[in-house]
């Protein structure tokens, strides 16, 4: 028990240092989150965030180029554009393509968003219809949310938690919307941040293993929940507090999980060497 507490404090000290170093707006680019802050109105930030998160797969440079083009076609207000989206607007997107997604996928996603805005007023209001404070975490609400969106034809973009995947992009969007600090926008006030699930990508999967938060080889929803539970032991009220800062080690400090020339400067070097588990 004493070692467990000691290791937890050691890891917390390291993570707090990373948070102080990296959890600032200047470190957001080239993260897709940057597109949220290109707008001032909540409605536009929410739409930009949803689209940015849904297409947050692949090389970060490609993501940025695609989102710049996509949102650029919507003018100064993505929310107004979506609300008024019509048949004549479809021609703007028919020739677009991003990796696995075609212009038809993009059009279908915009049509889904229009239905949400017309019927509910915002993405937040739709999400809250399936959210319950009594749920252990955000997963049940996320499942209801995806089903309500009825994403036929764009299943790759809208992963259902029930299928067991990490749902990284959905949980990433929720982190941006729910948490509030210098990085995350915190536009939604009705969701408890302690119920969020870590959006697990290759960096967080690798780095959380170094921290001893899991030992799984395959990343799935169970692994994401396990990693979240580990962070909750360190910061129960805000388990995703360190998500952005920790991922910078992989993105900015080139951590590959194997010894390389960057290791001597890495904040996790001692934890990586000692492999502290709790």
Task: Give an overview of the whole structure.
The chain has 278 residues and is mainly α. The protein folds into two domains: 1-27 and 198-278, Endonuclease Iii, domain 2 (Orthogonal Bundle), CATH 1.10.1670; 31-158. The protein has helices at residues 2-22, 42-54, 60-72, 78-83, 103-120, 123-129, 139-149, 168-178, 202-210, 221-234, 243-251, 269-274. α2 runs antiparallel to α8 and α6 (123-129) crosses α7 (139-149). 39% of the residues are buried.
In sequence order, what are the helices and strands, one letter per element? Answer: HHHHHHHHHHHH
Determine the structural class based on helices, strands and strand pairing.
mainly alpha
| Form type | globular
The counted number of beta strands is 0
Describe the sheet with the most strands.
none
- Helical element count? 12
Low-pLDDT regions: none
The proportion of residues in beta strands is under 5%
Radius of gyration: 19 Å
Oligomer: single chain
**Mean of residue pLDDT values:** 91
State the end-to-end distance: 9 Å
Query: How many separate domains?
Result: 2
What are the salient characteristics of this protein?
Endonuclease Iii, domain 2, globular, mainly alpha, 2 domains, 278 residues
List the helices and strands and how they pair.
Blueprint: H1 2-22, H2 42-54, H3 60-72, H4 78-83, H5 103-120, H6 123-129, H7 139-149, H8 168-178, H9 202-210, H10 221-234, H11 243-251, H12 269-274
Summarize this, please?
The protein is an all-alpha fold and 278 residues long. Helix content is 50%, strand content 0%. It has 2 domains: 1-27 and 198-278, Orthogonal Bundle (Endonuclease Iii, domain 2); 31-158.
């Amino acid at each position: 028990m004493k070692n467990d507490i000691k290791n937890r404090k050691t890891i917390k000290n390291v993570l707090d240092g990373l948070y102080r170093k990296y959890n600032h707006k200047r470190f957001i680019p080239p993260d897709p989150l940057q597109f949220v802050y290109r707008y001032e109105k909540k409605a536009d930030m929410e739409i930009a965030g949803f689209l940015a998160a849904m297409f947050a797969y692949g090389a970060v440079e490609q993501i940025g180029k695609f989102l710049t083009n996509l949102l650029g076609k919507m003018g100064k207000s993505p929310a107004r554009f979506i609300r008024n989206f019509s048949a004549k607007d479809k021609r703007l997107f028919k020739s677009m393509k991003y990796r696995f997604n075609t212009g038809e996928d993009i059009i279908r996603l915009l049509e889904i968003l229009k239905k949400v805005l017309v019927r509910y007023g915002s993405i937040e209001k739709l999400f809250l219809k399936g959210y319950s404070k009594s749920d252990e975490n955000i997963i049940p609400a996320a499942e209801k949310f995806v089903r309500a969106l009825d994403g036929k034809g764009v299943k790759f973009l809208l992963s259902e938690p029930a299928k067991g995947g990490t749902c990284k992009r959905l949980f990433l969007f929720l982190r941006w919307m729910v948490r509030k600090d210098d990085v995350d926008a915190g536009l939604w006030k009705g969701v408890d941040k302690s119920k969020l699930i870590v959006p697990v990508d290759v960096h967080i999967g690798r780095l959380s293993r170094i921290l001893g938060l899991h030992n799984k080889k395959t990343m799935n929803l169970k692994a994401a929940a396990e990693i979240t539970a580990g962070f909750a032991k360190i910061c129960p009220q805000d388990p995703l507090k360190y998500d952005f800062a920790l991922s910078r080690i992989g993105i900015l400090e080139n951590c590959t999980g194997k010894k390389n020339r960057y290791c001597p400067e890495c904040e996790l070097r001692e934890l990586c060497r000692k492999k502290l588990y709790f």
